[in-house]
Amino acid sequence: MSYQVLARKYRPANFHETVGQEHVLRALINALDNNRLHHAYLFTGTRGVGKTTIARILAKCLNCERGVSSKPCGECNACLDIAAGRFIDLIEVDAASRTKVEDTRELLDNIQYAPTAGRFKVYLIDEVHMLSNHSFNALLKTLEEPPPHVKFLLATTDPQKLPITVLSRCLQLSLKNMIPERIVSHLETVLSSEALSYEEEALWSIAQAADGSMRDALSLTDQAIAFGDGSVQSVDVNAMLGTIDRGVIQQLLQLLIDGERKALMSFVAQLSQQAPDFSRLLSDLTLALHKLAMLQVVPDYPLPVAMDAKAFAELAQRVTAEDVQLFYQIGVQSLAELRRSPDEMVGFEMVLLRMLAFRPQGVIDIEHAPDELPEVPTKKTLPQSDEVASTGAQVEKADIEVAHLSSKAAKPLDERSESAADDQPPWDVDGLPASASTASKEVSTNNAVIEPSSSLAEVTATETVPTNNAVIDPASSLVEATATEAGSINNAVIEPASSLVEATATEAGSTSIEVPEAVSEAITESVHDFAQGVNEPPIDHKATMPSTAGTDVAAAALIDSAIPADSPKPTETTVGHVARGFSLDSLTQANFPEFALRLRMIGPAGSALHQMSLQSVEGNQLNLVMDSAQSMLLKARQHEQLTEAFSVALGETVILNIVEGDPGLLTASLRRLEIDTRRREQAIAELNSDPVIQFLNHEMGAKVLPHTVVSLAPEEF
Ligand SMILES: [Zn+2]
Fold first, then answer.
1. Count of structural domains, the chain
2. What ranges does the record list as Polar residues composition bias (predicted)?
3. What is the average pLDDT across 657-676?
4. Rounded to the nearest whole angstrom, what is the distance from the C-alpha of residue 26 to the centroid of ligand 1?
């Protein structure tokens, strides 16, 4: 016996076997049972939802030899003939192939004759919208007043194309698309009665692919049975449909929500080997996002059986409503775009990248090159304590990075600086003082542990663009160092870099570490370039780190010094440490601005100091010039504070002779302005070369507005 396709074998024989479309069936059953039949019915709905099936059942109901009812016997000749498709008074016309007016005329010529075998002549015209206008006109007259023995059953997938005159003469019955749940349950019934094995998961894939059409679902099941040699397995169905596992959507969502770009991209690459339908994948993704959004509002929102309710509930809690909305919006808007993209996989990747790029907190962890992507999940989503915890783990890596430094500039260090985050409050976000001697190196070493992290904390808190990082301070300065590749570099730049490595290593328990030669050279070189002829003593890079105990003491001292923002008078410790490296002998007009900045004085005394330049040094007397407009800042008390600070920093008691006049260009405030400007320019350059910014610029014409880029530490050096 030849195989009969499921769609035909399981075609319902009466209304009670029909799956779905209850609203239409009820109308028909009532009409039949109450004998209030219309002479022309129009069934609308997409393909495979049961239009012709219902029309045929209706034909049976009308012609069953046991009388007109909603329950045809299914045993009489009329019922059997109709079921077999050979009933003479059921005239089925495929309008798609008989569009000409001649065809319609021929059809209508016979209409007046009484039915041969049955009670009614039933004209079932499928795809009626395909008829030509002439055909419609020919049909109209008859449709309005057909002979009493004639019933018209019209079916169309596209009622919009029917002339209004036709529509108004028919009783329209709209058939709905089948919901996946209904398709799955029907497929289960069918497969069970066929005694075939199946995976429910596979049926869901079929139901999804069938897109509301039961006939398609049954045809696909036929295919799957053939494909899977008698059983319907998920793997086979997915391969057959080019769809992907439902778990895939869940995993995509997870990676998307965690912002794990690298893992996400390799996951997509992996998926592409299965040659999935990326458009379908994207629409599935947006559907899943809708589920997440619903779960966030209605926690007990019923999910389709195929979705892992627990996993989805967990995802819904981990992602913000805004992100879900954003992802959904981007997904939906990109669906049309995806179909136009030259390569669907490329299009799909771009959609995912866009989702991440526009996500408020997703931006920050994007770095300069794909190969630098951090392997840990974005720290932004983690609580701070976790960051601290992770520091230890990453410190080990720092050792390796040091070795890397010897061949290249300090590039990888900005990663380390990120990982070195701790709870240091961000009040001390200023740049590190460039230490010009071994002694002060201890300080800046400790500094390095604290400050880059605090600046990171600030970056994290304000959720700025990643490269703003580059604006702020040491952490960023490392980026600067990278860009110029050990060329002319601010000495404040490299020093913290190396000290950071050392400091990190120290934390890990290694008590001594040497800076590689190449770095030393780079540092020395840059110090020279930068210091503009200032004769600073070379840094002893072979210096070993102080013991952990020593570090703590120095760190404590430093924190002390960092705190008194409201005290105009710096402590001895601070001044002593930060400005060490200068002596009365080495102080010159040129390096005076550095010295003044490194005193880190604040309040009126600091403001006054920053407007001064050094005229000359005579013995232990410093002759300073100050703008007369600023001289009001300098009262006796400030003079006293300055004298004390200078004395401590220079290691001997000095006399400050401050006169009014033109201080010229070598003042701390101009120096700082210069540094800030350079940092800003550097940051703008960094921003413009950032791949994400370039992507946004290229794809959407976004531009960095230079005036919106600010140096985050303009007040401190
Ligand atoms: Zn019958």
1. 4
2. 381-393, 435-445
3. 84
4. 20
